[in-house]
Amino acid sequence: MTADAPRPVVRVSDLHKSFGEREVLRGIDLEVQAGEVVCVIGPSGSGKSTLLRCVNLLEQPTSGRIELLGAEVTDPDVDIDRVRTHVGMVFQQFNLFSHKSVLENCTMAQRTVLRRSRAEADRVALANLERVGLADRAHAMPAQLSGGQQQRVAIARALSMDPQLMLFDEPTSALDPELVGDVLGVMRDLADAGMTMLVVTHEMAFAREVGDRVVFMDDGTVVETGPADEVIGAPREERTRTFLQRVLDPTHQSPTG
Ligand SMILES: Nc1ncnc2c1ncn2[C@@H]1O[C@H](COP(=O)(O)OP(=O)(O)O)[C@@H](O)[C@H]1O
Ligand SMILES: [Mg+2]
């Protein structure tokens, strides 16, 4: 590695995380380069959310290193809040403030964290609501929107902070099937616009088409990683094949259910 090689946006090295006695991340290595879309797939309980939460500093790693946007965030001296400002996160549950309008949901953090004026925050929020196809709902309350629309507001809210990295944790898995496509469409547009993204998803077609790379996790480890087409289309590892069979063909019965 040369000194002037571009630093990855995310670099996770030998990350371990335990909850009590239980080690749920057992030595994870992962890099996301600028402009790259990396999709993380794997069975429930394999540690995908914990990995994302460690990357976003919502969980304290037990050991290992995490570099984010050029800062080593596992260093106790680093200003974590400053780094976190540049990372957008979208969860399965949209976590909008129910008593605030769509527009206010998208301006609050801009005003308090970035100290933008009301006019500037409104301008940025409206541009991002436009981007997710919801500018006309700026004055609605979240409860007046469908789940898919609420998730698109959550994406607009994250984008309004000008993130250099977007983390998504199964953003479509709480949605009715007919609402999934709009959210994936917004994510695809973001990817096309060059956003750096780390996406935990069950949507294999999305991972294959939009993902530059796919990471398959099982039982707290990265089992396989590579170009999306290879990992999903021609997996090398038996565990990856078994998982993909199960998710791509739900009628397939595995011995463990
Ligand atoms: N805060 C927590 N306390 C204790 N155990 C946890 C906590 N968060 C997650 N776990 C456990 O860690 C394992 C991995 O969970 P998670 O990262 O949510 O997996 P995934 O997102 O792949 O479904 C699971 O067994 C889960 O029960
Ligand atoms: Mg999860």
Describe the protein's architecture and organization.
This protein is α/β, with parallel strands linked by helices and 257 residues long. It is built from nine helices and ten strands. The protein has a six-stranded mixed sheet, sandwiched between helices. A hairpin with a 2-residue loop joins strand 9 and strand 10. Helix 4 (118-131) crosses helix 5 and helix 5 runs parallel beside helix 6. Magnesium ion binds next to helix 1. Belongs to the ABC transporter superfamily. InterPro entries: AAA+_ATPase, ABC_ATPase_HisP-typ, ABC_transporter-like_ATP-bd, ABC_transporter-like_CS, MetN_ABC_transporter-like, P-loop_NTPase. Residues 10-244 form the ABC transporter domain.
